[in-house]
Amino acid sequence: MNYTVVLPAAGSGKRMKADKNKLLLELFGKPIFIYTLEVFEQDPQCEAIWLAVKADERAIIERYVNDYGITKVKGYAQGGMERQDSVRACLEAVPPCGVVLVHDAARPFIASRVIAELVNEAEKTGAAIAAVPVKDTIKKAAGGIITETVDRAQLWMIQTPQAFRYELLLNAAQAAHKEGFLGTDEAMLVERMGLPVHIVESTYENVKMTTPEDLIYGKAILESRKQ
Ligand code: C5P
């Protein structure tokens, strides 16, 4: 099944402690978001890539896209204040398609196997998201005192890509916007409509480049792939 991917890329460098959009930071001389784009450029099932970008960064991002020979970028939408706004702007801009994948441009190490499973599952059931089992013990606390140790067997760390039938996600995103609901991922918007969201087990390599030490992990992952 072919799919369209929507990549929110309109964030900042705040948690990365960078003075520019962290996606423009380089790992071994190549901007982070180009690694992400290359995964989809090379996936034969990916029909089109759409990017949500800040208005004043569009020119530099477009230049990189051209310089690195990324041919599947079919359009850009203007990013918003929140990631959810950026994703919605993109969803409203893309031509309707069967399955749409939403993926953080800041996660360059997504495995092709996970993308394929997500697309299949979303086609079958409507909604599927990438996740890995929680490794650490998780506790709740109030005022610095533990109130509960949560059963880890039921906990997942949620990543992107998140894959959906296009109409389903568009409706959920527009309903959330209308009702002033702000979620932390796309799945939440679908869950609140009472629809099931399926998990596809992903890899721990699919880290989001968020804080400075993530760049160290990123370089280590790239090194390990050279061997
Ligand atoms: O900040 P964080 O790393 O969680 O953002 C995840 C992804 O969403 C990044 O690729 C970032 O560029 C994007 N984003 C966006 N619009 C925003 C905030 C984040 O497109 N307003």
UniProtKB/TrEMBL annotation:
Catalytic function, reaction form: 2-C-methyl-D-erythritol 4-phosphate + CTP + H(+) = 4-CDP-2-C-methyl-D-erythritol + diphosphate
Pathway: Isoprenoid biosynthesis; isopentenyl diphosphate biosynthesis via DXP pathway; isopentenyl diphosphate from 1-deoxy-D-xylulose 5-phosphate: step 2/6
GO MF terms held by the record: 2-C-methyl-D-erythritol 4-phosphate cytidylyltransferase activity
Gene3D superfamilies in alphabetical order: Spore Coat Polysaccharide Biosynthesis Protein SpsA, Chain A (3.90.550.10)
Transmembrane segments: none
Function: Catalyzes the formation of 4-diphosphocytidyl-2-C-methyl-D-erythritol from CTP and 2-C-methyl-D-erythritol 4-phosphate (MEP).
Site (Transition state stabilizer): 15, 22
Record site: Positions MEP for the nucleophilic attack: 152, 208
Family, as annotated: Belongs to the IspD/TarI cytidylyltransferase family. IspD subfamily.
Record keywords: Isoprene biosynthesis, Nucleotidyltransferase, Transferase
Pfam families (UniProt xref): IspD
EC number: 2.7.7.60
Source organism of the structure: Planococcus chinensis
Protein name according to UniProt: 2-C-methyl-D-erythritol 4-phosphate cytidylyltransferase
Signal peptide feature range: none
InterPro entries: IspD, IspD/TarI, IspD/TarI_cytidylyltransf_bact, ISPD_synthase_CS, Nucleotide-diphossugar_trans
Key word Transferase present: yes
HAMAP family in the record: IspD
